Amino acid sequence: MINNFKQSIPSFFLVLGYLVYFIMLFKTSFAMSAIWMMILIYLWLATSLYLNIYSPNSFIKILSGSGVLVALSMFFLNGVEEVPFPEGAVVFHVEGIAQALFLLFLCIVPTVLKLVPENTIIMKSPVDNKFKSSEVKGSNQSDDWEEATIEDLESGNFENI
User: Among residues 26, 105, 20, which one has the least CA distance to residue 71?
Assistant: First the structure.
């Protein structure tokens, strides 16, 4: 039971810290709440390292989740503004939207990189110059055909298979 309580202490600090973040966001400035979010991440990191329950995957999730919360807050505070006339109208500010999207992109990159398996080839050349078409022959290809040249393709005098 003590081990379960020990493992839930950093999560408890994190949930309590998120509540404090939202309270600070509405009561004080955005800068103070962003500073609190950074202190909260350091607090979670310190407690999980002290209690020997640190996991890199959970750190990536917490860092990305906290960044997404800050990016959404930045979007609604700096990117969208309600104007009095006409009633219910909103104005979008490009600078605030760009900042929020950039922060959102930076926070999502570690999560995406974590999801890609290590043996996956991300970028592969569409044409491999090591092998020529005459060296690689499939089981359904026969010897009674020849490869079309550029002149043949431009003339239009060939059969499509």
Answer: 105
Q: pLDDT, tens digit, for every residue of 77-118?
A: 999 999 988 888 999 999 999 999 999 999 999 999 888 877
Domain boundaries, the chain: 2-115
pLDDT in tens, 33-42: 999 999 999 9
Q: Residue 121 gets which letter from DSSP?
A: -
Query: What whole-number distance in Å separates Cα of residue 106 and Cα of residue 98?
Result: 12
Burial class, 110, CB count within 10 angstroms (exposed 0-12 / middle 13-18 / buried 19+)? middle
Contacts of 79 by beta carbon, 8 Å cutoff, 6+ apart: 92, 93, 96, 97, 99, 100
The single-letter DSSP state of residue 75 is I
The 3-state DSSP class for residue 18 equals: helix
